[in-house]
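Holo prediction — guanosine-5'-triphosphate.
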Amino acid sequence: MQDVSSLVAQAREGRPRAVARLISLVEGASPQLREVMAALAPLTGGAYVVGLTGSPGVGKSTCTSALVTAYRRQGRRVGVLAVDPSSPFSGGALLGDRVRMSEHASDPGVYIRSMATRGHLGGLAWAAPQAVRVLDAAGCDVILVETVGVGQSEVEIASQADTSVVLLAPGMGDGIQAAKAGILEIGDVYVVNKADRDGADATARELNHMLGLGEARGPGDWRPPIVKTVAARGEGVDETVEALEKHRAWMEERGVLAERRRARAAREVETIAVTALRERIGDLRGDRRLSALAERIVAGGLDPYRAADELVSGLTEG
Ligand SMILES: Nc1nc2c(ncn2[C@@H]2O[C@H](COP(=O)(O)OP(=O)(O)OP(=O)(O)O)[C@@H](O)[C@H]2O)c(=O)[nH]1
Ligand SMILES: [Mg+2]
């Protein structure tokens, strides 16, 4: 058993091994998870969480790395969480990510972690937010969360971040396809990366059209900016940071940031509660209580709704 309070204290001092240990505890759903989360709670809320999503290979990791460089120049502490919804492996950074992030490997002001979600997207729903909390409590000013945009994960990442960045690249056939897949609702900032390639302007124009950016909006409404970048050369990265700062300022001004964080917390509680309930019900398979209810239903003495109510209230009282 680990001494959670000393781990938390060491993480606060920015000791990378303590941060890694804490993330492993929450990721592995350790028996100490509750103790860890309770210890972290009063220390969180200081970090600005930015989600980056987009199709495989658009340049998310490259862009993330360039953003890290930009934020480090401002003296901010940065956490990076690369969430890979497809990898069955946990904890190990993907080789490509490692290469692209390697320039930050020896910087004590940067904490980088890869996280697999065990082949099912549901994993992202609870594990990633807890890892974000660890990085937040460890004193990161900015946390960048990279997720491959595969349908549901886009929506999930958007619900976890303060600001969502959607990346596109020209000539991947993904621009407008991805747009159709729902990214139009989730992007606060759009990045057309690989602007050194043909078609970047066309992609940006199409996106502009799809987003209806030409149309009139309310005076205080947020207009998602479209930033063109060549992340591999660091071009457009300052503009991206500027767009993020503007979005953050807009959210703070309008109370949107607090509102998003409340909504996020509510969803977290819901996910944890539903998961716990499902596990307890799962434990009941073959249990006497459940089979007794089933017998009464078959005998016509009880309907399944009443039975479910009885089951749930029995679980929550017990
Ligand atoms: N031409 C060009 N290539 C780029 C640019 N940015 C990234 N790349 C290259 O695109 C490839 C994919 O970049 P990554 O940053 O790994 O993309 P990713 O979106 O993180 O990829 P996954 O995590 O596998 O989904 C790499 O070979 C990069 O060097 C750019 O601005 N221009
Ligand atoms: Mg990547």
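READOUT: Confidence is low (pLDDT under 50) at residues 87-95.
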